[in-house]
Amino acid sequence: MDDLPPFETHRVDNQPPPFEPRDLWGDDVVLRDAVEREGAAAFVSRVATYGALAGDELYRFGFDANRDRPRLRTHDRTGQRIDLVEFHPAYHRLMDVAKSHGVAGLSWHEPAPGAHVARAALSYLHHQAEAGTSCPLTMTHAAVPVLQREPGLRAWAAKASAPHYDPRDVPIADKAGITLGMGMTEKQGGSDVRANATTATPHGDGTYALVGHKWFFSAPMCDGFLVLAQAEGGLTCFLMPRRLDDGGKNALRLMRLKDKLGDWANASSEVEFIGAHAWRVGEEGRGVASIIEMVMLTRLDCMLGSAAEMRMALAQALHHARHRMTFGKPLVDHALMRNVLADLALESEAATAFALRVARAVDAASRDPHEATFARIATAVGKYWICKRAPTFVNEAQECLGGAGYVEESILPRLYRQAPLNSIWEGSGNIQCLDVLRALSRESGTRESVAVELASASGRDAIYDAFVDRLRTDLSSASEAGTRMLVERLALALQAAVLLRAGSPAAALFVRSRLGGEHGLAFGTLPDDADVGALLSRALPA
Ligand SMILES: Cc1cc2nc3c(=O)[nH]c(=O)nc-3n(C[C@H](O)[C@H](O)[C@H](O)COP(=O)(O)OP(=O)(O)OC[C@H]3O[C@@H](n4cnc5c(N)ncnc54)[C@H](O)[C@@H]3O)c2cc1C
């Protein structure tokens, strides 16, 4: 202590260096392998560019956008209604970089094979840096195919997929790029959208006046919203602009912003429609059918988002454990900590690999009916399981940092608040499971597409083969009360299938622990003879 400068009480020691800047693409072997394997090799350089941005500039912006939360301004200083949300400039910067790099539109703007997989990778990288902006980016992406089918709304589809961000409150005619939101959930019911009570009355010129409300209405500064309302013919989908073509304000009022557990950079509002102007999308009474494709895409992004949260949490935990010394050696060299980290690495790899596999099914859906059927069921299976795993996972990774993991300056508290959201919105857990059950029992080709996928990995691992044999039988006799158990087992088998087919070094241990019963209820319970060294080096380069 003698060599300390005057008035200094101690030397700062044994603290890990800053996590960022970090190349989120270069560091992620699992992602890089998956992008190549699932058919997006042609887009690699663009995804790589985004990975470098996400681990540096966007990562830093994420802290500002979440610290300074969006504020609702209902009126201007003269008392005029304005219904505007103000964001920290970092929010707009995040949106601008994301939109201009194709996070919301690459798949539609450059529709080559593999484009959906590349966009999925971009979305995964973006979500690691900042999750709140993922909401409007995802909704914008998912709304495009619905709008493309409407000849009168193709300009909206083109501008939504264009690589431009323009936050100005002006009609879309004055913008090169736009964003889109969605309004389905009302106070009396969200999962059961048929309970929607908002009414739509035709003006007689193809447009409608909407009266009612939405209880959750995220990203209300989007340029337009796909909303459900009851027309004479039943529940119908509409596109509602925020600004009218003549520049006037459409008749929607933002009542308040939700005070949310997390997702702080993103504004989620309650809104009322007072005769709001809207165009019909699809036939009257076909509202649910109109939004089906959209829902498949938002579910894919929920899955990607949760996989991204796990990946970021894992990278933080490994980074910390490599640099922090306890009891005379780095944390990462303690056998029990190695078990925890390796177990997290397995879970993260399976989540990422499966999410990208589903992205390939979405990518190929328009060309291959088998992949279309697989995408339909796999988005629900993955949305249920991967999103369900994220909160527990993030908490475990947080614990690897000790007290530092509970402090905002590490990104872990933000990830922890965000983690439950993906399993709640876009159809909560039970809704996904019931949807899987419905698809298996009523939709032709679903059972076969699952069987083909599972069979593609057979013969490589005896534990896997035995597990899949039992699962095949159970798939034909599923009951509603037992659906969670069935979907969990199906998800594990599908994740294992991807890892086995890919020849991943994680495959055998994943199968042994998740399918073979050699695992406890908590992370860090891998069999003690497991060789985890290679897994840990693969998970994050030293
Ligand atoms: C931060 C945030 C932002 C959101 N943004 C939007 C948005 O922009 N637009 C939008 O439209 N919505 C949005 N939502 C709403 C979200 O999609 C709904 O909250 C969600 O779909 C659940 O609907 P609900 O809240 O009405 O719950 P309910 O429908 O009441 O369901 C409650 C629970 O019961 C379960 N359940 C329901 N029916 C059954 C059944 N038959 N069997 C077994 N279990 C069942 C559900 O799985 C759920 O767990 C947002 C939500 C949040 C939290």
Explain what you see:
The protein has 19 helices and eleven strands. With 542 residues, the protein is α+β, with helices and mostly antiparallel strands. The protein folds into two domains: 257 residues, Beta Barrel (Butyryl-CoA Dehydrogenase, subunit A, domain 2), CATH 2.40.110.20; 250 residues, Butyryl-CoA Dehydrogenase, subunit A, domain 3 (Up-down Bundle). The strands form three sheets. Strands 3, 4, 5, 6, 7, 8 and 9 form a seven-stranded mixed β-sheet that branches. A two-stranded antiparallel ribbon has the order 1-2. Helix 17 packs antiparallel against helix 18. The longest helix is centred in the middle third of the chain and has 37 residues. The chain is globular, with a radius of gyration of 24 Å. The chain starts with 28 loop residues before the first helix and ends with a helix. 51% of the residues are buried. Bound molecules: flavin-adenine dinucleotide. The site of flavin-adenine dinucleotide (FAD) has 23 residues, from strand 3, strand 5, helix 13 and helix 14.
Largest sheet entry: 7 strands, mixed
Approximately what portion of the residues adopt beta-strand conformation? 5-15%
Rg: 24 Å
Q: List the domain count as a whole number.
A: 2
Q: Which small-molecule ligands are present, each listed once? A: flavin-adenine dinucleotide
Label the structural class.
alpha+beta
> Would you count the extended β strands for me?
11
Q: Give the SSE order as H and E letters.
A: HHHEEHHHHHEEEEEEEHEEHHHHHHHHHH
Percent range of helical residues: 40-55%
Q: Which parts are unreliable, with pLDDT below 50 for 5 consecutive residues or more?
A: none
Distance between the termini: 32 Å
CATH C-level category of the largest domain: Mainly Beta
Q: In CATH terms, what is the architecture of the largest domain?
A: Beta Barrel
Q: What number is the mean pLDDT?
A: 97
Q: What is the CATH topology of the largest domain?
A: Butyryl-CoA Dehydrogenase, subunit A, domain 2
How does the overall form come out from the CA principal axes?
globular
Tell me the number of helical segments per DSSP (H or I, 4 or more residues long).
19
